[in-house]
Write a structure and sequence with these properties.
This protein has helices at residues 12-23, 39-45, 59-72, 96-123, 145-165, 184-187, 216-228, 240-259, 261-266; strands at 3-6, 27-32, 49-53, 78-81, 87-88, 127-132, 170-177, 189-190, 235-238. It is of the alpha/beta class and 274 residues long. The protein has one domain (3-241): NAD(P)-binding Rossmann-like Domain (Rossmann fold, 3-Layer(aba) Sandwich). Helix 1 (12-23) links the parallel strand 1 (3-6) and strand 2 (27-32). It binds NADP nicotinamide-adenine-dinucleotide phosphate. NADP nicotinamide-adenine-dinucleotide phosphate is lined by residues 7-8, 10-14, 32-34, 55-57, 82-85, 105, 132, 134, 177, 179-180, 182-184, 187, 214.
Amino acid sequence: MTTWFITGASRGIGRELTEQALARGDRVAATLRQPERLDDLAGKYGELLWRRRMDVTDTAQVERVLGEAFAAHERIDVVVSNAGYGVFGAAEDLADEQVERVIATNITGSVQLARRAVPWLRRQGGGVFVQLSSQGGHLTFPGFAIYHATKWGVEGYFEALAKEIEPFGIKTVLVEPGMVRTGFYDAAERVPVSAPYRGGPADTPALPVENMVGSQSGVAHAIIEAALCEDPPLRLLLNSDAYDAVTATVRRRLAAWESQRDLAYAADTDYVGA
Ligand SMILES: NC(=O)c1ccc[n+]([C@@H]2O[C@H](COP(=O)([O-])OP(=O)(O)OC[C@H]3O[C@@H](n4cnc5c(N)ncnc54)[C@H](OP(=O)(O)O)[C@@H]3O)[C@@H](O)[C@H]2O)c1
């Protein structure tokens, strides 16, 4: 039987993962800011569901809850760092507190969770660490800069971490969905653009919110399949919009770099003046 540890299990992808895992007969250590939001699942699944209050920005709480979860279960096979949210608005217009809080949640929360989960996974002889990233960890939309900073941040951190912990039998999976029909876009903070940005790119983010193709249950199912397969992939690009946009973006980036090859090599030579 597989045991999961999941952050942000109250709604969206985190809750869907919790429900699908329980429906498979797995155990779930679900963490969320309001544990009572899983009362219905607790009634249905009894001891298979273990839950604790946990805000990922409270590192002391993360450490304590992780310790309790590993103590309460024989082993935890998959840790899912899912909690996160977005902030829309011109980068200049965001309040300092908004910048700091989204970084504290999406990056610092994920980093500190991983730093505290890895010793447990190492001691039990391995496991899988799943980190929710996004197509927005490879491409960008104006009006969403701070969110991209957090997802590009987790891409770099977890790619490097994956190499460090692979020798301990710990696999890392970066999940990169496109736009998924969850409450994410309703929950996102929206900062009205100030006068200089009105009518500009930050004022009309090119996010086709009305035409989201991603299915919450489809994404959760893909995460479960990937985490439990024999050789979990480092990157799990999900949904047709993300597949098309990320592959096209990376191709364009590669072509731009290749067109600059001579410039890149020339910078190896000392500059001696004109
Ligand atoms: N939906 C998309 O289009 C999409 C696309 C790519 C990536 N993602 C990523 O997928 C993950 C899940 O998003 P979702 O679509 O499921 O969004 P969602 O429906 O808005 O759910 C977000 C979850 O994160 C939790 N959360 C936020 N801040 C938290 C904190 N400080 N501590 C603990 N939990 C916190 C929320 O809890 P509360 O109920 O307490 O607020 C909620 O459970 C996020 O990392 C997001 O960036 C989403």
